[in-house]
Amino acid sequence: MFILRGAFTALVTPMKDGGEVDYDGFRRLIQFQLEGGIDGLVPLGTTGETPTLEESEEEKLIRIAVEEAGGRVPLVVGTGSNSTKSMREYTKRAKDLGADAALVVTPYYNKPNDSGLIAHFEEAAAVGIPIVVYNIAGRTGRNIPAPLMEKIAEIPGIAGVKESSGDMGQIGDMIAGIAMRRNGSNPFRVLSGDDAFTLPLCALGGDGTVSVISNLLPAKVTALTKACLEGNYTEARRIHFELLPFMKAAFIETNPAPIKAAMNMAGLPAGPARLPLGPLSSAHTEILRKELASLGLLKK
Predict the structure, then answer these.
(1) How far apart are CA 94 and CA 86, in angstroms?
(2) Torsion of CA 145, 75, 36, 51, to 10 degrees
(3) Domain extent listing, the chain
(4) Would you say residue 22 has pLDDT above 70?
(5) CA–CA distance, 175 with 252 (Å, rounded to integer)
(6) How far is Cα 122 from Cα 133, in angstroms, rounded to an integer?
(7) What are the beta bridge partners of residue 66?
(8) Is residue 196 a contact partner of residue 164, using CB atoms and an 8 Å limit?
(9) Is residue 149 classed exposed, middle or buried when 0-12, 13-18 and 19+ CB atoms within 10 A define those classes?
(10) Angle separating helix axes 218-229 and 233-249, nearest 10 degrees
(11) CA angle 211, 112, 195 (to 5 degrees)
(12) Mean pLDDT over residues 185-199, rounded?
């Protein structure tokens, strides 16, 4: 049974220096996540550079993720598009290939009105796989406020939301107005889409995180999330403040360029980001290097 709760990693897509997808590296990263005790995996999201991937590359990555995860943790595959037709096709592909759920982002650039947005998620849910709404106005230009999310959450098959609005008031409204009113047989989960908000979101009654820094620190992020969900906020605060400088450094430039640079420094397969994301500035590289050294992760 699919459970959207705990620490999920928004997986990077490792690349070779020539720009080709590093499929062997992707397998290694998934094994690294499983060894670190992560609760779930989210390939083909923003961190996975989906806008620059070919459909054949995406399909192969899904197949590898399903094979490597082997049912040990839930697999939530990004299937979003600003075309409802394409989104539905991607969502069906994920379902057919064995994903446990689909992460569907608010359509970007189109800036759909409320009725269009509801219809978009109805189309996603109609595929017959649990749908996690991805709300990230900074990428899409369209926020989903709590009253509209309540309407979307009424669609059968909508399992929860990855909240990246950066608005704790809005997040609290979603938790109180939707998640806490649903019964156990029909839960609506609220997960943080920002690493620095994992602790406060869980303190409000949320369900965990879809993390970027867990690409490098799966065990630490899992421990942080577990402490939060168990109500052990003394331990949660300790881990949060230990990781906070790196959380900030990991977003010093556009994601996923910083986390891929950090993973390369730590000896994990990540490679470069694809254009239009370029390499980090030398100043930002040194900031990342310093934070990795403080965590004892610097190898290169």
Answers:
(1) 12
(2) -70
(3) 6-244
(4) yes
(5) 29
(6) 11
(7) none
(8) no
(9) buried
(10) 140
(11) 10
(12) 94
SS3 category, 133? strand
pLDDT of 186 higher than 90: no
* Residue range 125-155, pLDDT digits in tens: 999 999 999 999 999 999 999 999 999 999 9
Cβ–Cβ under 8 Å, residues 38 and 71: no
Tokens matching residue 57: 């590359």
User: Hey, what CATH class is 6-244 in?
Assistant: alpha beta
247 Cβ contact list (under 8 Å, min separation 6): 195, 196, 213
The SS3 assignment for 163 reads: strand
User: Taking every pair of C-alpha atoms in the chain, what is the biggest distance, in angstroms?
Assistant: 51
Q: Can you point out the beta strands (E) in the chain?
A: 6-10, 40-42, 76-78, 101-105, 131-135, 158-163, 189-192, 208-211
Distance CA 92, CA 83 (A): 14
Sheet holding 189-192, edge to edge: 40-42, 6-10, 208-211, 189-192, 158-163, 131-135, 101-105, 76-78
Q: Are strands 158-163 and 40-42 parallel, antiparallel or unpaired?
A: unpaired
Residue 215, helix vs strand vs coil = helix
Burial of 109 (0-12, 13-18, 19+ CB in 10 A): exposed
- Residues facing 191 on adjacent strands: 162, 208
Q: How far apart are the first and last CA of the chain?
A: 41
**Whole-model pTM over 0.70:** yes
Question: CB–CB of 196/247 below 8 Å?
Answer: yes
User: What's at 145, amino acid-wise?
Assistant: P
The catalytic residue positions are: 134, 162
